[in-house]
Write a sequence for this structure.
């Protein structure tokens, strides 16, 4: 799994963030550090990454496949051979494997969906000996349904509002949704919430097929028979094993009954190719789909139902399966109880070349390089923990269970978690905790992009500026471009939602995290979670020469080394304060806009404008009346942010002024205060209805999945019209921010030698 | 022909216009007028319109076809039978008819485009006895070209900028452009200007095919073999006979040589269906087309060229052909030398049911009703001139030549020209001279929409308000919605460009004009200019029951009657003043934005941002550096608009206060001053490089065609970087506005009895 952006419209998830005022220009790299990094880079060999991927991607490597275990053993052996103290940690998670799948259109002529991805000559899909699992959606409920079919576009919240206006109900029906515009698992969840009894998800060529570029094997995009597999567990409720929320899925753990596990879907769900989907969609009648709902198939998209019912049946073997996390440690020479954790998963859906092995081989290259440096006398001051996770695809199992197993120790020791996942040729893409934004900018200013010869940060800034030229670019993109044009300011990093192994750290433990990768040019999305995500596809299209996979190793390796060896805390508090301040502005604007919208809609309803503007020969109803939106009490939150800005400035200034002159006692006290400061943002209370998610600054959107919701307690309360939750979470979030400011103020006192 | 909006994105051509401050609520209809209009409406019978259309659309009726002449004779007979003084006026215009057409892809397997529209059972296309002309583009140059093919998207100005950045030249190549986003004739004109030697235009299903709705005969949209014919004369230079610019194409007129006629294209050009186009487009290689260039065919759109050359040959018979305008007059009882002219063309491309006969039968219904009223004792105070134009499709021939033949008389006598063209079920759509905007609002407030039972103006206001809810709605649409929500303000009418028979009146003679129709729900665009624009298609989809064609007759009939019988001038000067004021704001904003864009681009070029943001493995160059944009001297124009606002308020107030109390002498003086006041806006000088176009407020865009450019002398000078023309035309436009204000002031003096 990885966070997939819609290839057609990359929606910026966050607003612009102001730069860190404390630092100004990036601090120069010391001579020692420069030499070390130079040595590190010289130890990264693209041809090694290529050989590792070829081996790891030779056979299907999904959870419980022989090659998954073999890969874990292989990775363990490599870590050990490179001098790391490594072991495999095993968990037992619920892992359903498909037994049978059927999808048919029953009349006038029976059509049986192929549900198959034929092998492509010259590609691993044609030569692997170990059969992959059939394409399926893990954790869809067993079921057998026959009913009329309704096309629901992406199947997200707004789509059901449109259906309601069209007078089309999915109750008792099977829905067909296209991939895109939100997390896969939302589609069956929202379908079942609206009364559907089955769900089909297909890949429209508008998103990742022939509309975008030529299809594989001619080009990188999804061929007509390509199918996107995946998990449909309810990710934003809690990730990890569905039977052991909040605790480790050890062999003796207390487990929920399957029927009680709230993250498992309630309806049968199946993924299909666009070759199969076209037949189903062409059979639909009823209203013509609204313009934004139309994909790139050569048909008139109708909403349905058609004349013929659809028969959908899926059945899985619901067993516990073993997952194998490979954990490698390199003990810190100075502060062994301060950990820098670095992870990437090793399980795929089939061959998993781009996802996840492109990131995995980068991680391996870093580990080998650090091992080599250690063999020649360098030792990290803090402990390095390198984790090769298993079971990420079914739902971040390896990282989540490990995080839950070692929660107390991790909260005590982890300075930063660094994640990667699928990687490709292109632009730097970083999301995460904004107190590390300045560090990211420093490193991005020093690592050279191989395609252009300029630092990766400079290239990213150019991209941000050019994106703002689009006539439809929204205001926040234009504001971001202004920042990007000023080399004295830090370019913004994204807020993280979910969809990869950072989740347990950031969302649950409150440990700060960064997710780092390169993206956009490699078109790995064209074979995402299909049988065609192969070594050949990756080598031909996604990262020819393994240049960007090697670059990922150099980039993250440098971040790891900086965090591991820095005497002083690497956080910049101003970056976080500015980000949160911007998020509050967004939330206030959201409330104002929702209020104006409700008022405008009331006027339109009163004047019957919706009826009068509609074609009376077509079905189109009136939208449901919007609640009036009260004013939300956010004064305490505004005060807390004002204070955070002051405290951040005080801290950043004091660090810049006095950081170099601290006594060992002062340094120890400072480190202690700053090590777990981010955890103040994730108090025990958690988010309403999904308390596994503790972080009050970042969360996966309940109705978006991958995409982050910032200040989620307040923002989602407004979005979901939970009017009493909004002020309550404004207060809780204010308290969390004040706790962060308290820590900063204590640290400032230490820095100022008082 | 008619003004076709892109079915996918209806771009609002003009900004918002403030309401007329002078009048406030619509003036009540007098009892007499109400009774008359009631009687008029009762004389409009949909079943008559249906029968007329069935007869007129029974055989192909293009210029020079037997049925075209037969229709003129039939219409003449009807006018006479209804008591009108009618005659046929004939002109001889250059009218090329296709002799041969060839389009082939030469390798690897030879593909010969069908260029055919097969008959559809149950449709006139299968039963007509008279063969239509082959589908062709009139006034494309004869030629035979073999060359590589390049896809140029819509083939408009911005598309060639994109091609330049992609490093793709069309020099010596054949281009293929899709219909949409600008006037058809721009595509070969711009292609030849960029060095192409041939041009293919096709209908992409994204614009009017299966993407929008089911295709004919199941639904209304363009079937795979449907072809859009049309004229490619250079419309915005001058319409009408290409050999007699500015003078009437009488038999003895002095004519240009064909080779000297500047409006005739220089390269062979051919229209094709999307069934044929798909084969050509699928053969292309080279860069993948940018996202906005991709249509709805199930292929990856490449820019080209492909491996195989294309062979294109067209040859026409270049002869003079006769066109037959049917002119019917009903003499005014009080002011016979003040004319209200009403027109709609009768020639089509094949059967021409929707275009133009839907508007033609409305015109006939009005004429019959006025004839009947006249037979029962009512007589218009002003003279009615009803014109059934011929030769509109080849390029507004009938109206233009008639306008040029009678220029002096028309300028002396015409109070208003009222035009219609293709009509369909849906919403009122009016464009034209803004001093008549208030009149339109009055009538629109009284005519009932048959689908909703509310006045057509109220329904239009609802549509405007709902359109502004779209998340991407631009600011001027939101501003327009605010006006539409206020029943005390006039909803805005559009500015007119070209594409129908109003052009000679508005653009050349300076006579005010209104173009009136109903649109949007009928989907006539799906068969536009194809063999499938038949009686059956119109009856089934475009206006079942001929309800909206009848409604058009009621709406325009009411406008005609008001203008014909009003003692006082019907103009409202405030409507015009506000519109022009808004246009100047747009022009100033345009200059500012162009200036900012040039400055921003200079910074991006300096920082090499375009290169750094690009994928170096794909061809993408740097955009051409934009000129720095000087500040434009518009003070005189601003002064003139300030004055116009004052003069308009003075006039409108005086008219409201004293209009009812004028002596016959005062009334005569007032009428004389106001009759031709709009002509002050169209001084002899004309627009730069296209002096046939005299109007300095409205013009067809040189690079848009259908769409209007307001304050064109200034606006297009900025757009086209003609920096010396901009202040010159600001001054000329200011003079024209001052002349209008002078007239208003004189009229105000009359009204105030001084």
């Amino acid at each position: 799994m990885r966070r997939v952006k819609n290839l057609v419209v990359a929606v910026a998830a966050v607003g612009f963030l102001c730069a860190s005022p404390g630092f100004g220009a990036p601090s120069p790299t010391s001579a020692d550090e420069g030499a070390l990094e130079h040595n590190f880079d010289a130890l990264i060999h693209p041809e090694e990454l290529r050989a590792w991927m070829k081996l790891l991607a030779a056979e299907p490597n999904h959870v419980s496949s022989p090659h998954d275990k073999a890969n874990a053993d292989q990775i363990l052996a490599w870590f050990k051979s490179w001098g790391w103290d490594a072991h495999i940690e095993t968990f037992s998670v619920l892992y359903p494997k498909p037994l049978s799948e059927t999808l048919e259109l029953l009349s006038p002529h029976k059509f049986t969906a192929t549900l198959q991805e034929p092998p492509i000559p010259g590609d691993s899909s044609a030569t692997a000996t170990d059969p992959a699992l059939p394409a399926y959606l893990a954790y869809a409920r067993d079921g057998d349904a026959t009913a009329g079919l309704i096309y629901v576009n992406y199947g997200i919240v707004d789509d059901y509002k449109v259906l309601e206006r069209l007078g089309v109900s999915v109750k008792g029906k099977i829905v067909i949704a296209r991939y895109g515009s939100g997390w896969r698992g939302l589609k069956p969840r929202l379908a079942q919430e609206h009364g559907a009894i089955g769900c089909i998800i297909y890949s429209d060529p508008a998103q990742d097929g022939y509309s975008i570029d030529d299809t594989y094997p001619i080009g990188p995009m999804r061929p007509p028979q390509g199918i996107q597999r995946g998990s449909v567990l309810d990710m934003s409720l809690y990730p990890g094993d569905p039977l052991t929320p909040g605790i480790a899925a050890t062999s003796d753990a207390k487990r929920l009954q399957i029927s009680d596990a709230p993250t498992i879907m309630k309806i049968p769900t199946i993924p299909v190719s666009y070759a199969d989907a076209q037949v189903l969609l062409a059979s639909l009648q009823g209203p013509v789909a609204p313009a934004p709902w139309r994909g790139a198939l050569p048909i008139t998209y109708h909403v349905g139902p058609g004349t013929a019912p659809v028969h959908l049946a899926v059945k899985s073997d619901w067993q516990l399966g073993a997952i194998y996390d490979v954990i490698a440690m390199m003990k810190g020479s100075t502060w062994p109880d301060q950990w820098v954790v670095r992870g990437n998963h090793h399980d795929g859906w089939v061959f998993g070349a781009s996802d996840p092995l492109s990131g995995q081989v980068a991680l391996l290259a870093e580990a080998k390089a650090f091992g080599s440096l250690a063999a020649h006398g360098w030792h990290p001051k803090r402990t390095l923990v390198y984790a090769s996770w298993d079971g990420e695809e079914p739902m971040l199992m390896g990282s989540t269970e490990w995080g839950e197993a070692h929660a107390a120790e991790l909260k005590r020791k982890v300075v930063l978690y660094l994640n990667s996942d699928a990687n490709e040729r292109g632009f730097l893409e970083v999301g995460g905790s904004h107190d590390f934004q300045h560090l990211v900018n420093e490193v991005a200013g020093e690592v050279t992009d191989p395609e252009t010869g300029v630092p990766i940060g400079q290239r990213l800034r150019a991209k941000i500026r050019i994106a703002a030229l689009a006539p439809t670019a929204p205001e926040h993109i234009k504001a971001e471009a202004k920042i990007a044009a000023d080399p004295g300011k830090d370019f913004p990093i994204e807020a993280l939602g979910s969809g990869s192994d950072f989740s347990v750290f950031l969302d649950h433990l409150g440990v700060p995290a960064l997710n780092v990768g390169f993206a956009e040019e490699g078109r790995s999305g064209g074979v995402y979670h299909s049988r065609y995500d192969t070594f050949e596809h990756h080598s031909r299209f996604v990262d020819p020469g393994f240049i960007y996979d090697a670059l990922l190793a150099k980039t993250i390796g440098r971040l790891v080394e900086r965090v591991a060896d820095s005497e002083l805390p690497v956080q910049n508090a101003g970056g976080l304060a500015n980000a949160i301040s911007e998020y509050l502005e967004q939330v206030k604007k959201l409330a104002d806009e929702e209020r104006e919208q409700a008022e405008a809609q009331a006027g339109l309803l009163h004047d019957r404008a919706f009826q009068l503007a509609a074609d009376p020969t077509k079905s189109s109803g009136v939208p449901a009346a919007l609640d009036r939106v009260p004013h939300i009490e956010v004064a305490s939150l505004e005060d807390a942010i004002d204070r955070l800005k002051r405290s951040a400035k005080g801290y950043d200034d004091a660090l810049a002024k006095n950081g170099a002159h601290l006594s060992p006692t002062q340094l120890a006290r400072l480190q202690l205060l700053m090590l777990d400061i981010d955890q103040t943002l994730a108090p025990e209370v958690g988010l309403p209805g999904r308390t596994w998610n503790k972080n009050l600054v970042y969360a996966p959107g309940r109705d978006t999945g991958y995409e982050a919701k910032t200040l989620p307690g307040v923002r989602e309360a407004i979005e979901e019209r939970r009017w009493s939750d909004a002020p309550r979470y404004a207060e809780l979030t204010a308290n969390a921010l004040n706790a962060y400011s308290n820590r900063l103020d204590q640290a400032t006192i230490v820095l100022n030698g008082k």
In short: The CA atoms of residues 498 and 706 of chain A lie 5 Å apart. Confidence is low (pLDDT under 50) at residues 3-28 of chain A. Residues 31-91+320-571 of chain A form a domain with the Aminopeptidase fold (CATH 3.40.630.10).
